[in-house]
Design brief:
alpha/beta, 17 strands, 5-stranded parallel β-sheet
Length: 370
């Protein structure tokens, strides 16, 4: 019986960013059950234009690889750092089972593996675990898993009887699969770092977002936290912009169902900027904007690190009274979201690139936020 497989073919950033060569995997030895060989395409990432001619580009023991969830971001990071994206082959059997192979030597190398666990979350998480297992078995010197968006982060505690703490489970899976270090961006709760038994570097997208809104010079600006859990994040943001802070009291009645109760703080006649870490179905975001406008706000903008945008999120944003929604590219933007003019995407490739450089060179990552 033959197994038909399909190769994940990934779109490059530019015509020069990636060359696709057709080749075949070595024939697999048939098993007792009659499983047959795989065949597919080889994805070869050519060297992008280097940002600089430093030592990293010449360091053969420094490598960056990517999964399929956000290859464009990985290519941007590689271009910033000045190294080529590592060569891999990822295929699937007809039933969806993953087959992964490294196409270059990583023995003793300092490897960074970029893979946000965004939609489909389980598929991309399993890809990540399989890629790490391959790196571990290929004797990589150190494996740093770079997860711009950490899936399952919202399930970080027992808020109801008999539920799983899935963010802890994922941390255990990553460690067991072979991760020696983790580089994460804007965790839903900073305490998730404690779920890991390996070093964790927690980055914030705020420098990218703060810079954008500082340049906009919005009049009478007030930063708004859409819930009590995001107050610390919003306070830091407001301090950087030197503007007041307001809070919206939000009550969650069910998963992805919220009810905005009231606004704490004076927003009348102000331009409001809602700050959140994740925009999922956008229900909270739109209701928060309506509550602020009902309290006399002039205009409402919004920004978030992770544009999950599931379900009716894009339609809700497009139909809302929000002036603009700014997100980062930790998650690739949905095709329908790209058509909405009020959704703007900022890149965190430079932030990730500088952090990767610091980790490899054994210098301080925290200085990036000073």
């Amino acid at each position: 019986m033959n197994n038909q497989d399909t190769t994940a073919v990934l779109s490059p950033i530019s015509a020069q960013a990636e060359e696709i060569e057709t080749s075949s995997l070595p024939a697999a030895t048939p098993s007792a059950s009659g499983a047959s060989s795989l065949s597919g395409q080889r994805l070869v990432a050519s060297s992008p234009e280097k940002k600089k001619t430093g030592k990293l580009g010449e360091d053969r023991r420094f490598k960056i690889f990517s999964g399929t969830s956000n290859r464009e971001l990985a290519e941007e990071v590689c271009k910033f750092v000045g190294v080529p994206l590592g060569e891999t082959r990822l295929q699937r059997f007809s039933d969806g089972e993953v087959h992964f192979q490294l196409l270059e030597n990583v023995r003793g190398a300092d490897v960074f593996l970029i893979q946000p666990t965004c939609f489909p979350v389980d598929q991309h998480l399993l890809e990540l675990l399989i890629m790490m297992d391959a790196l571990k078995r290929a004797s990589a010197g150190r494996i740093t898993v770079v997860i711009p968006y950490y899936g399952y982060a919202r399930q970080d505690r027992k808020d109801r009887p008999r539920v799983a703490i899935t963010s802890k489970l994922v941390a255990d899976l990553l460690t067991t699969a072979g991760a020696n270090r983790a580089l994460l961006v804007d965790l839903h709760a900073a305490q998730i770092q404690g779920f890991f038994n390996i070093p964790v570097d927690h980055l914030f997208a705020s420098p990218v977002l703060v810079s954008y809104f500082r340049d906009m010079k919005l009049p009478n600006l007030t930063v708004v936290s859409p819930d009590a859990g995001g107050v610390e994040r919003a306070r830091f943001f407001a301090k950087k912009l030197d503007v007041p802070l307001a809070i919206v009291d939000k009550r969650r009645t069910d998963i992805n169902v919220t009810e905005v109760m009231n606004v704490i703080g004076d927003v009348r006649g102000r331009t409001c900027l809602i700050l959140d870490d994740i925009i999922d179905t956008a229900g909270t975001l739109v209701k928060t904007a309506d509550a602020l406008l009902a309290q006399g706000a002039e205009e409402v903008y919004a920004c978030a690190s992770h544009a999950v945008l599931s379900g009716p999120a894009v339609e809700r944003i497009a139909a809302s009274r929000l002036k603009e929604v700014v997100v980062t590219n930790t998650i690739p933007l949905r095709e329908d979201a790209q058509k909405v003019s009020k959704i703007k995407v900022l890149s965190v490739a430079g932030l990730l690139g500088r952090a990767i450089e610091s980790i490899h060179m054994e210098t301080s990552v925290s200085t990036l936020f000073n």
